């Protein structure tokens, strides 16, 4: 098993960052404009769609405003059954966000791509939190020939 | 043991990208302006310095233009003994770069930070390869309260 790990600090109140991870409007503001569903109750399902495909995430854990846990229930084969864990904490002016995309079965090349892409979207989340404007798909930064 | 993985695609010839990873001028163009030493022979040592500190890397493997392998011999305790592996290959117009920063002893919070920061510098490498201008330290994108 292998994990993708990331850390960003956002100059925005922790409750606002939590909202950006648990509401359709928030998620559409930094990850993908085409976000459907709900994300603020355990059992909710979120549907994230990109040009080529997407993911469905089931909310399996919430501790406002400190933790969000999703399980991938639909999407690329490599993603199914993996978990996406968000931990939030305040440090000075910053809300620190720790992301773990856990339990990849193999460290395949696609995992390398997704790791870099997660960083791009976390910078988008940071910008969304600090300025109100992120760069969600289809306006995200492209990193390679897989997009 | 835990690894940081990333993938970028750079619209630049593979030999140019290899040069950006094995020459002082190249490395100073996208990672840190304060780069000393040499990186194009096995046994060479590169010294990367940032505001707060830095790393020394020993070149332990080279296969031009496809592979570069460094071992961290000086720097933050968590980095010492880890390896940084670069794999390059051509795919259409792109030179694909696979980065592995391998053998972290524990998936500590600092590893989360370094993972996101690697992505930032890979985007800088991409920009350096495609336009001749990267964003090396001290002009790098800041991601959190650790910089």
TrEMBL record, chains A, B:
Pfam families noted in UniProt:
AHSA1
The family database entries (InterPro entries) matched by this protein are listed as:
ASHA1/2-like_C, START-like_dom_sf
Any idea where the Activator of Hsp90 ATPase homologue 1/2-like C-terminal domain is?
12-127
Which family does the record assign?
Belongs to the AHA1 family.
The protein depicted here goes by the name: Activator of Hsp90 ATPase-like protein
What organism is this sequence from? Answer: Chitinophaga japonensis (Flexibacter japonensis)
């Amino acid at each position: 098993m292998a994990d993708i790990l990331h850390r960003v600090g956002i100059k925005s109140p922790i409750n606002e960052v939590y909202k950006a991870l648990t509401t359709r409007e928030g998620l559409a503001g930094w990850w993908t404009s085409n976000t459907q569903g709900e994300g603020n109750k355990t059992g909710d399902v979120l549907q994230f769609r990109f040009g080529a495909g997407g993911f469905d995430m089931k909310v399996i854990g919430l501790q406002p405003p400190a933790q969000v846990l999703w399980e991938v229930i639909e999407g690329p084969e490599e993603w199914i059954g993996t978990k996406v864990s968000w931990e939030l904490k305040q440090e000075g002016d910053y809300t620190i966000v720790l992301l773990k995309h856990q339990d990849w079965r193999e460290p395949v090349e696609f995992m390398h791509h997704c790791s870099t892409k997660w960083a791009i979207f976390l910078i988008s989340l940071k910008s969304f939190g600090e300025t109100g404007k992120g760069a969600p798909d289809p306006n995200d930064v492209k990193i390679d020939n897989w997009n």
